[in-house]
Design brief:
Order of helices and strands: HHHHHHEEEEHHEHEEEHEEEHHHHHHH
Number of helices: 17
Number of strands: 11
Radius of gyration: 25 Å
Shape: globular
Largest sheet: 9 strands, mixed
């Protein structure tokens, strides 16, 4: 009796879903609009579809090449040329897909009473073992309990959310504006007229400047949202005033710093001074204090805002300050709207833990990192749409596991083979062993392995 394995059936179903997504949202036209096309040879849409399905079908191009099972219909050089091209505008591509998804699918499912928002946040894009990645730098990692500087990039991301579904809009891998913190510089062979070179210039600019440029693109694209949500890392008066000039309102968490002051009743005070000088609400109120202030910058430009003090759940003796430039919002609405910012934290978790962000391709060019991140974010869009269209109330994480049947990063035998390859390099470079001595040590190790893995590893070692 012949029967197809369950994982093969799942793989075919997943590939069919990806093909439907590509057709429905005109991915081919978006690639051409972003200058990603070929006059002859393998169509770019086939290569992009192959990259999309890698995470869902338990495949790794690198391991398949090592095992001799890489057979997508084109050589690996085709993939690398697509990833390393500085002429493809991945920013235009991702934004056009996001607009199509929001306007043609999500907006029809969202009530007109619901407040949509633009969410801004950054996360560490780690390349801790790299040394020659273009624009690699020591960047500040504020995600852990202990703030440290780590080797990699700050992945600044802008997304759109209605409180249920988050769709990534734009991103930029930020290096360091301080040249002393950068390990490598811009590749001088890059065409200065290309969009890849312009992206590199953004990477070495300050984060607030890049953020304002990206928000300008979002406003120009007509994304249906009038509020911007972000954490305290960007909540400086000068940045908030610049965002308001883009006809956007800000709802953000404030940083309690003695260097930042707000104008209240004609006097400039810090957050702590404002809190200690005014009477707080009693009982079990959702907030402790609400006060109207004015923000100002070095050009004496001012913006009206409301600061709401909320009790810190982790420490009831402390407080958290939220600010809103939309004076029409009540205190409860400000707190509720800021809660939607958490969607982007879930987005980062899914991309890193399940969609292979930062771990699938170890390219050295800045273009390859940008292209890989774009592929991962399109994968997330597919998951977000599956979740939205499915009425099952379970979490995105559970739906994800159903989507691709508990994906494994790499099989055990493949992982062991990769470890042995790294061990061989260490023995030769550190202990200066000969190739014959290294082979003897590895053969002795393989002999001790179970029979299930011994045969395949012996064949690959001999070849």
């Amino acid at each position: 009796m012949n029967s197809l394995p369950e994982n093969l059936c799942n793989e075919k179903s997943i590939i069919t879903s990806i093909s439907n997504f590509i057709k429905e949202y005109c991915i081919g036209k978006a690639l051409k609009k972003a200058n990603a096309y070929k006059s002859k040879g393998t169509p770019v849409i086939h290569v992009f579809a192959y990259l999309l399905q890698l995470a869902y079908t338990k495949k790794s191009m690198y391991m398949n090449i090592l095992n001799g099972t890489h057979d997508p219909g084109f050589a690996r050089d085709v993939v690398y040329r697509l990833l390393n091209s500085p002429y493809i505008n991945w920013t235009t591509f991702l934004l056009s897909i996001a607009i199509c998804v929001i306007n043609h699918k999500i907006s029809g499912l969202t009530s007109t009473d619901r407040v949509n928002a633009i969410v801004v946040d950054d996360t560490l894009y780690s390349r801790s073992r790299s040394k020659k990645v273009e624009l690699l730098a020591n960047v500040h990692d504020h995600t852990g309990k202990s703030s440290k500087f780590r080797r990699g990039f700050r992945l600044l991301t802008i997304g759109w959310t209605d409180g249920v579904t988050l769709i990534p809009l734009l991103f930029r891998h930020l290096s360091s504006e301080n040249q002393k913190n950068r390990y490598t510089e811009i590749n001088q062979n890059i065409d200065k007229r290309s969009c890849g070179y312009k992206a590199r210039l953004q990477a070495i600019s300050t984060a607030p400047k890049v953020l304002l440029e990206m928000l300008g693109q979002v406003v120009k694209a007509g994304i249906p949202a009038k509020h911007v949500l972000f954490d305290c890392w960007f909540a400086y008066p000068a940045t908030i005033i610049s965002i308001v000039k883009l006809n956007l309102n800000v709802v953000a968490r404030l940083k309690n710093s003695p260097k930042i002051q707000y104008c209240i009743n004609g006097k400039k005070k810090t957050l702590s001074q404002i809190y200690s000088s005014l009477k707080k609400r009693r009982g079990r109120s959702k907030y402790l204090l609400s006060v109207s202030v004015k923000l100002y910058n070095k050009f004496n430009e001012t913006v009206d805002a409301r600061i709401v003090y909320v009790r810190d759940r982790n420490n009831k003796k402390n407080w958290i300050a939220l600010i809103s430039t939309d004076m029409s919002l009540s205190e409860e609405e400000i707190i509720q709207l800021y809660g939607k910012r958490w969607d982007i934290e879930v987005f980062f978790k899914i991309c890193k833990s399940y969609l292979n962000l930062g771990s699938e391709f170890q390219g050295l060019s800045y273009d390859a990192i940008t292209a890989h991140t774009t592929v991962v974010m399109v994968r997330y869009m597919i998951l977000a749409l599956e979740k939205r269209q499915n009425e099952d109330p379970r979490s995105l994480g559970e739906l994800f596991f159903l989507c691709y049947d508990e994906i494994a990063d790499i099989q055990f035998a493949e992982a062991l083979e990769l470890i042995l390859s790294l061990l061989r390099d260490v023995l030769e470079e550190v202990l200066f062993l000969t190739n014959e001595q290294v082979n003897q040590l590895i053969d002795a190790f393989i002999v001790k392995l179970p029979e299930h893995y011994k045969g395949s590893l012996m064949r690959k070692t001999a070849s």
